[in-house]
Specification:
The protein has 100 residues and is mainly α. It has one domain. Helix content is 56%, strand content 0%. It contains five helices and no strands. Helix 1 packs across helix 5. The longest helix is centred in the last third of the chain and has 23 residues.
Length: 100
């Protein structure tokens, strides 16, 4: 995966722009946590992470979800959580761009 966190969040946000106009109005930034299946982007827009994945036709297995900024792969918990923090920051920036 060669994409930055910002590029990944932008790609995911662009997909949501096409599939679910005004999706960013559904997001509560106060609880947004990309590592949480209850407070991530997809759960706030589609009511659950897995339903959002299904609706968008994407998968974790092929790297698509990671490249779109919905998922952070990895096995090292420290690196994994840092990645999710950076993804949350990148998504917050994308949401704020769309709200302003």
């Amino acid at each position: 995966m060669d994409l930055t966190y910002e590029e990944r969040a932008k790609a995911g946000a662009d997909l949501l722009d096409a599939e679910y106009p005004n999706w960013f109005e559904e997001i509560d930034l106060g609880i947004l946590r990309l590592e949480s299946p209850w407070n991530c982007i997809l759960s706030q827009v589609y009511d659950s992470y897995s339903l959002g994945m299904d609706e968008l036709g994407i998968s974790e297995a092929d790297g698509q979800a990671a490249n779109l900024g919905f998922f952070e792969p990895g096995n090292d918990p420290e690196i994994y959580m840092l990645g999710y923090e950076k993804l949350t920051e990148a998504w917050t920036a994308e949401i704020n761009k769309r709200r302003n």
